[in-house]
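Input sequence (493 aa), recorded before submission:
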Amino acid sequence: MSSAGDPGTKDTPSLDRVEKNVAEYKLYKRRFSGLLGFIVLGLVTGMQWSWFGPIATKTADEFNISLAQVNWLGNISLCVSLPAAFLVPLTVSRFGIRRCSEIGGVMLFISAWLRYAGTIPSLSPRSAYALLFFGQFFGALSKPISQILGPMFSERWFDLRNRTTATMAIAISGSIGSALGQLLSPLMSTVRQSILVLSIISTAALPAILLILESPPSPPTYSGSKPPLSLASMCRAMLGLPVSKEAYMSLRERVDFVILTLVFGGLDGAISVLSVLSAQWFEPVGYSAATCGRLGATLLLSGITAAVVSAPLFDRVFTHSMGVTLRILVPIVSLMWLSLIWAVTPNNTAVLFVLMAMIGSCSVSMLPLALELGVELTRNANGSSAVLLCSGNLCAIVLILVEGVLRAPSTASPPYNMHNSLILNGCVVMVFSSCIVFLRAKQARREADEVMIKGMALGTFPDAVSAGGIGQSGNTGVPLLDMDQATNLVEMK
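Predicted structure, token format:
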């Protein structure tokens, strides 16, 4: 793959020379077992992170700790995810997808039973909290693995007709787990029983990691045949420093990736804040812990439904419409977040459920689109996913800390309300989301894959292929052919 956005480069490798290194493109049924393994890993890591959100007040009372300390059980996951996210690309480049997933499983097991050890009644509040805290710490080390490796796994195992859908399945598994965590944690009679249930679920899920395989014998697409780029090469490309042709990013692509990072950070951070502070947002105005959990679950489950429906459409119908979709949905969802300022009032349950459903449908369905678009802009699945997820975690950490400070005093009406926090949350989302109007979002990686597939189907190749230059020059040398027809022809060969 040549320099992105630089189609005039003289020494771009010819497509037929590149093709000699790839015998054929093939799909394997075993890709679904690996997909299932990543989904299960994402479910459990998402569940443990949001577990304490709906039961924050009960946790504070039962363990004799403050609400700020309970918030840090969610914050620590976000804080640890920042450096851990950048360690994942380094680890996977050295040890591979399978071993990296096994490391995540070990961290998950340690976190489950450290957390449960903190429920021993004879422990002092300080000792119990320390065990809960370190349990969350080790769980946070496993969280970025499924999120960051998802786009790389889908690129390595799935073709153009299923790649976005595979990324969607892995990306939303964390959201599904978060929704399940918010639904299940309030169902137990005590917080200690709730933590035991979480430990059992985490342990039972570990064998699914064995389903994850490293890479197929033959790649599914041209981009899937390329060796993964390093995180350092993407950082150098973003700074405009000299890099290899494969890692090169044009100025437009660098600007687009910065815009995508800001928008993703604001929206993903807002969802994370809701998962951690749901009880503290809604309980002061009269809603029960169970209702708080259902509101958070409504946001996530409605988004999951929308993502399941939309992802296959972006794989097969709206194949070059990611940028347009984001420019439409982001302003809508930012207005919904802003409207919570006036919606979080007593006896307004129906409106809140409608808003949660609308926010979820737009926000969660955009998650796989943003991750895939990040790879389109950078051609670096691990690096782009790490940067995007870190932006969301960083925004969430700052918002959670500041919103905790903005909590009203006991003398307010109602006491300890979070109205000022909702104002801050809505304004931050609006400011970050406003950048979306400048997004261009050229899907260079997909265009290169399409040229390769059509060329293989027809036996006709262009003189050169460039991830950044295909869309700028309308002449690829490949006759027009429907992508489904071309893919079917390649599979028949």
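Checked by second reader. The two ends are 24 Å apart (CA to CA).
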